[in-house]
Protein backbone atom coordinates (compact mmCIF):
# COMPACT_ATOMS: atom_id res chain seq x y z
CA UNK A 1 0.00 0.00 0.00
CA UNK A 2 2.80 2.43 0.90
CA UNK A 3 4.72 1.81 -2.34
CA UNK A 4 1.51 2.18 -4.35
CA UNK A 5 0.70 5.41 -2.54
CA UNK A 6 4.15 6.90 -3.28
CA UNK A 7 3.85 5.93 -6.96
CA UNK A 8 0.35 7.46 -7.16
CA UNK A 9 1.49 10.63 -5.38
CA UNK A 10 4.47 11.06 -7.73
CA UNK A 11 2.22 10.44 -10.74
CA UNK A 12 -0.30 12.99 -9.46
CA UNK A 13 2.26 15.74 -8.68
CA UNK A 14 4.20 15.26 -11.91
CA UNK A 15 1.02 15.46 -13.98
CA UNK A 16 -0.34 18.48 -12.12
CA UNK A 17 2.82 20.48 -12.84
CA UNK A 18 3.22 19.19 -16.38
CA UNK A 19 -0.39 19.95 -17.32
CA UNK A 20 -0.24 23.44 -15.82
CA UNK A 21 3.02 24.16 -17.67
CA UNK A 22 1.44 22.99 -20.94
CA UNK A 23 -1.14 25.80 -20.69
CA UNK A 24 -4.17 23.60 -21.36
CA UNK A 25 -5.50 24.53 -17.92
CA UNK A 26 -5.13 27.97 -16.41
CA UNK A 27 -6.44 29.33 -13.11
CA UNK A 28 -8.07 27.09 -10.53
CA UNK A 29 -10.32 25.16 -12.93
CA UNK A 30 -10.15 21.56 -13.99
CA UNK A 31 -9.18 18.61 -11.93
CA UNK A 32 -6.92 15.62 -11.98
CA UNK A 33 -6.71 12.48 -9.90
CA UNK A 34 -4.63 9.35 -9.44
CA UNK A 35 -5.98 6.05 -8.19
CA UNK A 36 -4.11 4.53 -5.24
CA UNK A 37 -3.86 0.92 -6.50
CA UNK A 38 -5.27 -1.80 -4.26
CA UNK A 39 -7.57 0.64 -2.46
CA UNK A 40 -10.82 2.44 -3.17
CA UNK A 41 -9.06 5.76 -2.71
CA UNK A 42 -7.83 8.50 -5.04
CA UNK A 43 -5.65 11.61 -4.81
CA UNK A 44 -7.52 14.66 -6.13
CA UNK A 45 -6.73 18.32 -6.62
CA UNK A 46 -8.14 20.41 -3.78
CA UNK A 47 -10.87 22.86 -4.74
CA UNK A 48 -9.72 26.46 -5.31
CA UNK A 49 -6.11 25.55 -6.11
CA UNK A 50 -4.43 25.58 -9.50
CA UNK A 51 -2.75 22.55 -10.99
CA UNK A 52 0.49 24.44 -10.43
CA UNK A 53 -0.22 24.74 -6.68
CA UNK A 54 -0.47 20.99 -6.10
CA UNK A 55 2.20 19.82 -3.66
CA UNK A 56 2.76 17.40 -0.76
CA UNK A 57 1.34 19.91 1.75
CA UNK A 58 -2.11 20.11 0.15
CA UNK A 59 -2.40 16.48 -0.89
CA UNK A 60 -6.07 15.47 -0.73
CA UNK A 61 -7.22 11.87 -0.58
CA UNK A 62 -10.87 10.84 -0.92
CA UNK A 63 -12.84 7.67 -1.36
CA UNK A 64 -14.67 7.07 -4.65
CA UNK A 65 -17.72 8.96 -3.42
CA UNK A 66 -15.57 12.07 -2.93
CA UNK A 67 -15.56 11.88 0.87
CA UNK A 68 -12.38 13.31 2.39
CA UNK A 69 -10.18 10.60 3.91
CA UNK A 70 -6.80 12.34 4.29
CA UNK A 71 -5.84 16.02 4.21
CA UNK A 72 -7.45 19.25 5.34
CA UNK A 73 -8.54 20.74 2.02
CA UNK A 74 -11.91 20.63 0.32
CA UNK A 75 -11.98 18.01 -2.45
CA UNK A 76 -13.33 18.96 -5.86
CA UNK A 77 -17.05 18.69 -6.52
CA UNK A 78 -16.07 16.72 -9.62
CA UNK A 79 -15.07 13.77 -7.41
CA UNK A 80 -18.28 11.94 -8.35
CA UNK A 81 -17.09 11.70 -11.95
CA UNK A 82 -13.56 10.65 -11.02
CA UNK A 83 -14.67 8.10 -8.41
CA UNK A 84 -17.34 6.75 -10.74
CA UNK A 85 -14.80 6.10 -13.49
CA UNK A 86 -12.40 4.36 -11.07
CA UNK A 87 -15.22 2.19 -9.66
CA UNK A 88 -16.52 1.25 -13.06
CA UNK A 89 -13.28 0.73 -14.99
CA UNK A 90 -10.44 -1.03 -13.20
CA UNK A 91 -7.92 -0.18 -15.95
CA UNK A 92 -8.27 3.56 -15.25
CA UNK A 93 -5.38 4.68 -13.06
CA UNK A 94 -5.47 8.43 -13.68
CA UNK A 95 -7.86 11.12 -14.91
CA UNK A 96 -7.12 14.61 -16.21
CA UNK A 97 -9.96 17.07 -16.67
CA UNK A 98 -9.21 20.49 -18.21
CA UNK A 99 -11.24 23.49 -19.32
CA UNK A 100 -9.23 23.80 -22.54
CA UNK A 101 -10.48 26.49 -24.94
CA UNK A 102 -10.40 24.76 -28.34
CA UNK A 103 -11.99 21.57 -27.01
CA UNK A 104 -14.77 23.69 -25.49
CA UNK A 105 -15.15 25.70 -28.70
CA UNK A 106 -15.52 22.51 -30.77
CA UNK A 107 -18.02 21.06 -28.28
CA UNK A 108 -20.37 23.99 -28.87
CA UNK A 109 -20.59 23.37 -32.62
CA UNK A 110 -19.91 19.67 -33.25
CA UNK A 111 -21.04 16.31 -31.89
CA UNK A 112 -17.49 14.93 -31.88
CA UNK A 113 -13.92 16.07 -32.47
CA UNK A 114 -12.59 14.48 -35.64
CA UNK A 115 -9.08 13.04 -35.52
CA UNK A 116 -7.81 15.26 -38.30
CA UNK A 117 -4.09 14.79 -37.69
CA UNK A 118 -2.02 11.69 -38.36
CA UNK A 119 -0.79 11.54 -34.78
CA UNK A 120 -4.22 11.83 -33.17
CA UNK A 121 -5.65 9.18 -35.52
CA UNK A 122 -2.82 6.79 -34.60
CA UNK A 123 -3.09 7.38 -30.87
CA UNK A 124 -6.79 7.92 -30.26
CA UNK A 125 -8.23 5.79 -33.09
CA UNK A 126 -11.84 7.07 -32.93
CA UNK A 127 -13.32 10.59 -32.86
CA UNK A 128 -13.70 12.10 -29.39
CA UNK A 129 -17.37 12.16 -28.36
CA UNK A 130 -19.04 15.19 -26.86
CA UNK A 131 -21.38 14.52 -23.94
CA UNK A 132 -24.04 17.02 -22.96
CA UNK A 133 -24.75 17.10 -19.23
CA UNK A 134 -26.91 19.58 -17.39
CA UNK A 135 -25.17 19.56 -14.02
CA UNK A 136 -22.12 21.74 -13.42
CA UNK A 137 -19.98 18.75 -12.56
CA UNK A 138 -21.18 15.33 -13.67
CA UNK A 139 -23.50 14.32 -10.85
CA UNK A 140 -24.64 10.76 -10.09
CA UNK A 141 -27.91 11.33 -11.97
CA UNK A 142 -26.08 11.89 -15.26
CA UNK A 143 -22.97 9.73 -15.01
CA UNK A 144 -24.73 6.97 -16.98
CA UNK A 145 -24.20 9.14 -20.09
CA UNK A 146 -20.44 8.75 -19.59
CA UNK A 147 -20.65 5.01 -18.93
CA UNK A 148 -22.71 4.57 -22.12
CA UNK A 149 -19.93 6.11 -24.23
CA UNK A 150 -17.42 3.66 -22.75
CA UNK A 151 -19.82 0.76 -23.41
CA UNK A 152 -20.03 1.85 -27.06
CA UNK A 153 -16.25 2.08 -27.27
CA UNK A 154 -14.34 0.22 -24.52
CA UNK A 155 -11.04 1.66 -25.81
CA UNK A 156 -12.24 5.23 -25.30
CA UNK A 157 -9.53 7.36 -23.72
CA UNK A 158 -11.39 10.68 -23.54
CA UNK A 159 -14.61 12.59 -24.00
CA UNK A 160 -15.57 16.24 -23.98
CA UNK A 161 -18.22 17.66 -21.67
CA UNK A 162 -20.17 20.13 -23.83
CA UNK A 163 -19.24 23.73 -23.07
CA UNK A 164 -17.08 22.53 -20.19
CA UNK A 165 -13.90 20.65 -21.10
CA UNK A 166 -11.83 17.54 -21.69
CA UNK A 167 -11.92 14.40 -19.53
CA UNK A 168 -9.03 12.08 -20.39
CA UNK A 169 -8.34 8.73 -18.76
CA UNK A 170 -5.28 6.48 -18.77
CA UNK A 171 -3.47 3.80 -16.86
CA UNK A 172 -1.83 6.72 -15.01
CA UNK A 173 -2.51 10.44 -14.64
CA UNK A 174 0.65 11.05 -16.67
CA UNK A 175 -0.82 9.14 -19.63
CA UNK A 176 -4.20 10.83 -19.22
CA UNK A 177 -2.42 14.22 -19.26
CA UNK A 178 -0.66 13.35 -22.52
CA UNK A 179 -4.02 12.46 -24.05
CA UNK A 180 -5.58 15.72 -22.86
CA UNK A 181 -2.71 17.69 -24.46
CA UNK A 182 -3.10 15.77 -27.73
CA UNK A 183 -6.85 16.39 -27.77
CA UNK A 184 -6.51 20.13 -27.22
CA UNK A 185 -3.91 20.30 -30.01
CA UNK A 186 -6.21 18.27 -32.30
CA UNK A 187 -9.24 20.39 -31.37
CA UNK A 188 -7.35 23.57 -32.31
CA UNK A 189 -6.39 22.17 -35.72
CA UNK A 190 -9.89 20.75 -36.28
CA UNK A 191 -11.54 24.08 -35.37
CA UNK A 192 -9.23 26.11 -37.61
CA UNK A 193 -9.68 23.68 -40.49
CA UNK A 194 -13.46 24.14 -40.25
CA UNK A 195 -13.30 27.93 -39.95
CA UNK A 196 -10.88 29.02 -42.67
ZN1 LIG B 1 -14.65 21.17 -14.92
Question: What attributes does this structure have?
Answer:
196 residues, alpha+beta, L-fuculose-1-phosphate Aldolase, 9-stranded mixed β-sheet, 19% strand, binds zinc ion
Q: Which bin fits the share of residues in helices?
A: 40-55%
Number of helices: 6
Q: So, the CATH homologous superfamily?
A: Class II aldolase/adducin N-terminal domain
Q: How would you classify the helix and strand content by structural class?
A: alpha+beta
Under the CATH scheme, the architecture is 3-Layer(aba) Sandwich
Order of strands across the widest beta sheet?
Answer: 4-3-2-1-5-9-8-7-6
Give me the CATH fold name: L-fuculose-1-phosphate Aldolase
Oligomeric state as shown: single chain
What is the residue-mean pLDDT, rounded to a whole number? Answer: 95
* Rg on CA atoms, Å: 16 Å
Walk me through the structure.
- This protein is α+β, with helices and mostly antiparallel strands.
- It has one domain (2-194): Class II aldolase/adducin N-terminal domain (L-fuculose-1-phosphate Aldolase, 3-Layer(aba) Sandwich), CATH 3.40.225.10.
- Helix content is 40%, strand content 19%.
- It has a nine-stranded mixed β-sheet, sandwiched between helices.
- A hairpin with a 3-residue loop joins strand 8 and strand 9 (165-170).
- Helix 1 packs parallel to helix 6 (173-194) and helix 3 crosses helix 6 (173-194).
- The mean pLDDT is 95.
Amino acid sequence: MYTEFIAAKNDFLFTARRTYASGIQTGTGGNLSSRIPGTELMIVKPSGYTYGDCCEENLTITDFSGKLVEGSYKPTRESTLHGGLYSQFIAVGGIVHTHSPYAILCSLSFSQIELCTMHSALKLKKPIPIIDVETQAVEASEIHKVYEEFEKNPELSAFILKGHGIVAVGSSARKAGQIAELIEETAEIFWKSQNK
